# Entry
Amino acid sequence: MKRLQPFDFKSSTYERPDQEWVCGRKECGEACPLGPDLKGKCRTKAECQPRKDGARWSCTRPDSRGGKCPDGPLPDGTCCRSIPPCTPRRSVRARRRMTVLLMSALTLGGLFVALGHPRRDTFFNPGPLTAPHAAGAANCALCHTAAQFSSQDWFKGALAEGSVHSDSQLCAKCHNLGPQSGLAHNLAPATLSSLTKKISGHPAPPSGEDGEIVPTDSANQLACATCHREHHGRDADLKKIADASCQVCHAKKFESFASGHPDFGSYPYVRRTRIEFDHVAHLTNYFKNARAGQATPQCNDCHTTAPDNRLMLTKSFAANCAACHLDAIIKPGAKGIAVLAIPGLDKKSLDAKTAGIGQWPGDADGEITPFMRQLLAADAKTAAALATLKDADLTNLSTAKPETLAAAEQLAWAVKELIADLISTGHAVLQKRLGTSASPAALGQLPSESMQAFTQPGWWPDLLTEVAAHRAGLPPTKPVPPVPKAGVSSPASSATAPVATTAKPAATDDILGDDILTAPAKPATPPPAPAKPAVADDILGGDDILSGPTPAAPAKPATPAAPKAPTPVAPEKWAAGGGWQVSSADYTLRYKPAGHGDAFLQAWLDLTAQAATENNTTARTIFDQISSASTCLKCHSVDATPAKSAPTAALLVNWHANTPAPQTHSFTKFSHGTHFSLLDEKGCQTCHQLAPAASGTNSSYTAAFKDNHDTAKFISSFQPLKQATCAQCHVERAAGTSCLLCHNYHVGDIAVAKVRTGLTH
Amino acid sequence: MAATLTTSHRRILLRTGLLALAGVGAWTWQRHLATSLHHTAIATGLALFLTCLALALFNARKKLPFLPLLRAATWTQFHIYFGWFSILLFLLHIGFRWPDGPFEVLLASVFSLVALSGVVGLFLSRTLPSRLTHHGENVIYERIPALRAKLQRDVEAIVLKSVEETKSCTIADFYAAQLKRYFDRPRNFFHYLTRGQAPLKGILGEIRLLERYTNEREHAILAELTECLHAKENLDFQLAGQGLLKYWLFVHIPLTASLLLLGAFHGLYVFYFAGGLR
# Structure
């Protein structure tokens, strides 16, 4: 092959690729040896620069360019072979450098344009937001505190303390997880540590800056964005987290659900049932009894799924229990609970040694009921009097000390004032004295007719006048001769409104103003139930509280030879269906539960349970009295619960079986509905197997409810769930073993995202 | 020879093994960070940016040949293996999914182009030099225009000589019709990229056809021209090959500059929104 490139000294040129400029004639193969200057200007005018040797000019053209030319320099010393100027070109390296500069300038320019552009946020948005957050995509400042500053602050912000934690505050504006939202599992470190120790036997792993396992700030707060990574698309799962991430912190590490997962323990029976129901006894004994013919031992006869398909709910009392247990609740023979009564007092001694207590039934010998004690204790003076009279015999004050007599007098007038206030003011007195948010509807079942019994002859006929005078500082009126006591006690009209309505004159709505006890109204609207006895011995006549001052003479036959009037029905019998009853025998107003779900009892049980701390024995006494007089707590368990303000635990009556609270998240979650299709012929007992009981009753189960308010101390009617049962399906390639499949990270009350809506015109 | 190959292969295997080890280490590190709920993207992004900076230093090193900073060949090897490592870091950084945001798409595209141009450059620098060496006369890239011009002058001199010596314009006509445009300027760039010889073979076929109509003297002249044709073909091949070895950097280096600027801005932006450096 023909060789073109010489490398000998004379013919080989010297290449300078690092130079910025090259000769414009290089592409033609005629580049001048000198080349352009550093500024890119052609500086070659001839093929050589003649040299003066003495008086002559000699050619200096190099051998590589052909050597000395035959013509030689001109007389003036210039080269005879002039070269027209060329347009130098940049070298390859210079052009590459220019390209780098140009690209850099374009990049920086583009960035500055983008930063100043109105749609800057869109351009720098790292990715689409999930659908619920998508509306905020155009405004970074909604979720990023950093975006609330100007672009000039970026460098400062980039070097500053983390803003992800302040961003979490913006998250919390909609997602309120409570004050501990930034803490692991929303739990206080002490709580978390105790739980960890309970499960693993070790204290909680170190956290914070010294022993940081996961990224937390100086206050051990985790930012929301630590787990919930946005900008990964509309359909991204913000709750997705690797199982391994759970085990980073967890002291008890394990390989998988099938291998090493902590034992279920007693799950799902982590507390006793709220309704005391012995499954073993019912399924093995009672349901087989002919008496329970309506009961069929199918789980879904009594249980149904919650709307979210997760929890199994217990059906209502009417659906599940009423067929067998309703009669026992009404208890036909029960006398009822004494609510208000005229207590027995040594009136003679009091009248003699004090200013007097006015009218007082001489044969009253009852005690102050716990209800009254609770209401009377609202007044400090009366509370002090009650304390003074704690061990005193009020029916014999003949040898009492002056302070005891004064306390007895104070108590007597307090009782009168209480009753008078109730008569004249109504239920507001109850709420005022109880000082609680007691349900007016529940307390309001005390009918006004029943209260009027206290002003009937033989009780306190002039009660209102006496109390008014007492409050005005006037001495009590002289004792009136004892009025013959009414021979019968009268049942108050039933606690229910219809009775009161029946007694009320049609012309008025005011049951206190236009007294229903007045004579004109009475004949027009006799009570419907005792319709027959419209005679003197009628339980609504005579001393009937409904008869008022006007006897029912017009209705009484004048004929002396009238047949013997029928004996009035006994109050207990009258109130067999429940309600209020006035007992003249012991000057007492009683209440008898009207059935399941009795509002009065429920209200007072709740009221006294909440107040039943060790420091409030009165409330506890009332609670116990109602408990023993009713059957409520036979099935409804009572939990000890930390009182909000009391120093010791109060009580809580569980009126309902476990009901779902969608906002409450526990560590474990389970969806019953999604598992139904997997059940075999054993049905629910695939998982919920009855605890073995030789006697057919799970006596340990019921024993755990007796005098026990600790929900953790119990014996379940069922055997604990076996982990192997779950592991049959929950493997990696089937139902999955993700931690979050069965566990919640955030626990406690978690409200749904807030909606900030205001009504405007 | 066998011993040399074995050493070379051993070196490649060692470096590839180290690269694989670094990759596994990076992946393990990233998984550890992800498991412990740290922002892996920040960590891998920072590592990626520093790696890109280190890669860019290779170009700076070439401009400072006088400094005793290891041999250029060592730098090249570092550049190549760190380049592969940066691709792995990039994949870890983006979580093996193409980003969604406009700016991040731009950044990922620029990185991809830089990486792709780097891979292409590596391929060219591993294949072309040997082809250039074995193809024909090795010439300096900057001299090719001058050599082509000189060759063209030589060819024209041969053609003029043929007219004078043979009193025939057969070869001159053939030169004017077929050869002149071939010698005028570089030809058949893309054929050389694909190792194609078709253009040269076509012209040589024309010369063989012409030989049927020429005498002995003209045969000798045509042989000279054939030799010049081979020389021109070599020049074109050298120009194409060496040009490729120079001009792929026109993509790689400017995009690298852009990548570093965009990456630095991206880092600031992310640090700003993710809560700063601490």
